[in-house]
Amino acid sequence: MNIYAVIILLALLxxxxxxxxxxxxxxxxxxxxxxEEFKDVFDEEKYRKSQEYTRVRTRFGLITSTFSLAVLLIFxxxxxxxxxDQFVREAGYGTIVTGLMFMGILFAAQYVISIPFSIYSTFxxxxxxxxxxxxxxxxxxxxxxxxxxxxxLGAPLLAGIIAIFxxxxxxxxxxxxxxxxxxxxxxxxxxxxxxxxxxxKFTPLEDGELKQAILDYARKVSFPLQGIYKIDGSRxxxxxxxxxxxxxxxxxxxxxxxxxxNHTVPELVAVLAHEVGHYKKKHIPQNMITGFLQTxxxxxxxxxxxxxxxxxxxxxxxxxxxxxxxxxxxxxxxxIEMVLSVIMQMFSRKHEFEADRFAAETTGDxxxxxxxxxxxxxxxxxxxxxxxxxxxxxYSHPPVLQRIxxxxxxxx
Length: 412
Known about the structure:
The chain is mainly α. The protein has a domain at 3-129 and 291-411. Helix content is 73%, strand content 4%. The protein contains 16 helices and four strands. The protein has a four-stranded mixed sheet, sandwiched between helices. The protein is globular and about 65 Å long. The N and C termini lie far apart (61 Å).
């Protein structure tokens, strides 16, 4: 093995080991004693169920990650990447079409392998714990729609990136960066109107106490709101959520029907206020700019390695190509990506604290924010005592008990 193969293999194994340790520590951190704060929303049976849910999902995740790593390593050292490359080259098409065929075959294989795991997760685990509302027909149509979107949106972008690095030389990374930024902004702009409705039904929130309370709050904090929508999230899961879609003048609030059914008007206004907090604190543009900067650095590094012979030799390739280089660099870049992910999670948790505080201050009702966090934890069977190392690696939101303490501390 050359140095590239050693680096990538070590990166894969170290990443797997770190996540394994994190998961095992998280399981050991499960506390049989229900925290006092949650005794009004959890009984002993529900708390036991929430811990079992954490165990089952963690073990399933370990099985999935172990299987995925094993398949990758077997395919790699059996010369699978070169076999696929030689197969698509025999068709005699140009670089772009050949690259799309190469990536398409690998994606299709990975997708087919993942289907049994998705089925088990949805129809066994989620069903067992009372979350699953997805019917087999919805499961199938969701995947057909997802594949269609991948072909419609992903294939042209991939073709463009391959063409740019194939024909535009040393400055290709800059053109690729511009294309990805423009592409991302366009997708975010059209998503609320054209993409999300493919999977969920967005219904304008009917007139009534909730809508009026939301509009009153939006006016109070000078938040321009174009629409308030209810999503049929209950078609797939009993879990609840809320989020913003769009940007600029197309900002919309989206509330899951399960969220509306299970919470009071003050609690729902608190959820809205939290989301508005992200907007007012400029978290969304900060995240976008940070993401774009990371993409630019990654593309520059990609331009240095994409056609390095040693990187292709590490995967037993007979020929050097831009499209294979894209894939192999992704594996080489994975240690940097993991470090950046941890840093981004830290900023995300900080933003969540700030949005919570904004909600508590602007509504003047911190206990409604506390109440909704506690109810969501119970409804979603959240882990109330995650291990700090697991949080450090994986949590984009702080543990709920930390959020509650921070809200009350700010209000006192």
